[in-house]
Write a structure and sequence with these properties.
The structure is a single chain. This protein has 221 residues and is an alpha/beta fold. The protein has a single domain, classed as Ribonuclease H-like superfamily/Ribonuclease H (Nucleotidyltransferase, domain 5). It is 37% helix and 13% strand. The protein has eight helices and five strands; from the N terminus they run H-H-H-E-E-E-H-E-H-E-H-H-H. A five-stranded mixed sheet has the order 3-2-1-4-5, sandwiched between helices. Helix 4 runs parallel beside helix 5. The longest helix is centred in the last third of the chain and has 16 residues. It starts with 6 loop residues before the first helix and ends in an 11-residue tail after the last helix. This is Gypsy retrotransposon integrase-like protein 1. It comes from Gasterosteus aculeatus aculeatus (three-spined stickleback). GO terms for molecular function: nucleic acid binding. InterPro entries: Integrase_cat-core, Integrase_H2C2, Retrovirus_Pol_polyprotein, RNaseH-like_sf, RNaseH_sf.
Length: 221
């Protein structure tokens, strides 16, 4: 359940429960020798700087939302993923989709907010699914403000973009031997992200949302 999340986060995760002399070197060598990571990780591409939005302190008051895919069609006919990230806690949610129609996106969004509550603001790009009448009507019913970004006037600090990159990389590493069941990995992969401390906050998304440290897969019991 570690999720192939790179040296720093893997080290942080292990050191919450274990320590031995030379742990940093051992973890660095293990990450560097991981075949799945070498095959999937791409060189970083410089991008234009992004402008940060004001800080949010209330969980799920503002969320970012985006789509990733297409992936190989799963046995349950899923090809895409709707990704949502809470700006206050960095807590991610994700829902597999068979298509990216406005109806499918709206249903997945409603599924998530039924668990976490109705956000005041939802940040998206100007993709067709997010610009649809269906989404506008849903936002109206929820009294939720829609904030849209563009390549000309970026308004976000890249939070959702980073989550997209992380989740896509993790999915591709875990489906290399089982493409037909990649959607079954979503929940364990999300848990791996949720339990790792974030550099921007110093805490894991799970801790910030629930006020406790999760019992994760790296524990001795």
């Amino acid at each position: 359940m570690a999720g192939h999340m790179g040296y720093e986060k893997t080290l942080d995760r292990i050191m919450t429960r274990f320590y031995w002399p030379g742990i940093r070197g051992d973890v660095r060598r293990q990450c560097a020798s991981c075949l799945e990571c070498q095959l999937v990780n791409a060189p970083a591409i410089p991008r234009a700087p992004l402008c940060p939005l004001p800080l949010v302190e209330v969980p799920f008051e503002r969320i970012g939302m985006d789509l990733i895919g297409p992936f190989h069609r799963s046995a349950r006919r899923y090809r895409f993923v709707l990704v949502l990230v809470d700006y206050a806690t960095r807590y991610p949610e994700a829902v597999p989709l068979r298509n990216i129609s406005a109806k499918s996106v709206a249903q997945a969004l409603f599924q998530v907010i039924s668990r976490v509550g109705i956000p005041k603001e939802i940040l998206t790009d100007q993709g067709t699914s997010f610009m649809s009448r269906t989404l506008r009507e849903l936002y109206g019913l929820l009294s939720t403000k829609s904030i849209r970004t563009s390549v000309y006037h970026p308004q976000t600090d890249g939070l959702v973009e980073r989550m997209n990159k992380t989740l896509k990389s993790m999915i591709r590493k875990f489906i290399s031997d089982d493409e037909r069941n990649w959607d079954h990995w979503l929940d364990p992969l999300l848990f791996a992200v949720r339990e790792v401390p974030q550099a921007s906050t110093g805490f894991s998304p799970f801790e910030l949302l629930f006020g406790r440290t999760p019992r994760g897969g790296a524990g001795p019991d």
